[in-house]
Specification:
65% helix, 283 residues
Length: 283
């Protein structure tokens, strides 16, 4: 799975990124016994690949929390403003929806640019958050107005529930994030996205409801699969943060962690919103 995160796949054989540091081994010491392809040295040690080091003080959990709160706060703020300032009544729904689609495209472009950069760019990340918030605000308002009143609050609570569940499972080590796990998640996500693109193409060229992912039981099942994938990506994000702190990554890497957590939480929210909307519309 391609990622701009410089330490996402740098795990030792025991799946514990902080084992080397806590064991008192010298910085940059090799972690023996790992399977081929696992990361075996501290990427920020003296003599390591300098392209992975951007300088500055080492990142802390507080840095990640602050940057993530800033990024998510930007999403929430612009979502609320767009909900209030871009009405979706019959006279304005077309205009508001057009702005939302445009914002989604801009957010996607900014996210792709950041994903292919080796270093974080706070302006890109916050720009992505702002435009993504506009899209989410208009979409949520439209669904709440025309499809399922009250579903947005349920979707927010559902997103918190999924996130809390994954965090508990990760901290209890019920989820073991390994390179094999990351590869499986990446392959599954690729298939998921390809199915979504196929569905869009079938719908665009006159196949009615496309592959059927927008309604009925199949749509609910597809949405549940999306939620599970989002939960798996969230576990990868937690591993990213844990590795960054354990390996002494530069403080700037907190922005990458915030970017990853934000995009994953947006994914989970959209899939939860899809499932709840379909469930409410069928009842």
């Amino acid at each position: 799975m391609r990622t701009s995160n410089p330490f996402l796949s740098r795990w030792d054989s025991a799946g514990d990124p902080g084992r080397t540091a806590r064991a008192g081994r010298p910085v940059g010491a090799t972690v023996g016994g790992g399977p081929a392809g696992d990361y075996t040295t501290n990427p920020y040690a003296p003599g390591a690949d300098t392209s992975l080091r951007t300088g500055g003080n080492a990142v802390t959990m507080d840095d990640v929390v602050v940057r993530t709160a800033t990024t998510l706060g930007t999403v929430v703020l612009t979502a609320v403003l767009s909900w209030l300032l871009l009405p979706v009544d019959e006279a304005n729904v077309g205009h508001s929806y057009g702005l939302a689609v445009g914002a989604a495209l801009v957010a996607f472009v900014l996210a792709m640019i950041q994903s292919f950069k080796r270093t974080p760019a706070p302006a890109l990340i916050l720009g992505y958050a702002a435009f993504e918030g506009v899209f989410l605000g208009v979409l949520s308002s439209t669904i709440s107005t025309y499809i399922a009143p009250g579903v947005v609050v349920q979707a927010v609570l559902g997103t918190f529930a999924v996130s809390a569940g994954v965090l508990i499972a990760y901290r209890m080590r019920w989820i073991r994030v390994t390179q094999r796990f990351a590869g499986f998640v990446g392959a599954a996500a690729t298939g998921f996205v390809l199915l979504l693109l196929a569905d869009v193409l079938f719908s665009a060229f006159g196949a009615g409801d496309g592959l059927g992912f927008h309604s009925g039981g199949l749509g609910i099942v597809f949405g549940l699969v999306g939620i599970v994938l989002g939960a798996a990506f969230l576990a990868l994000d937690f591993k990213q943060v844990e590795d960054a702190v354990a390996y002494g990554a530069p403080r700037e890497e907190a922005w990458l962690a915030a970017f990853g957590l934000t995009t994953t939480l947006v994914w989970i929210y959209l899939e939860v919103l899809r499932v709840l909307s379909l469930f409410n519309s069928d009842n």
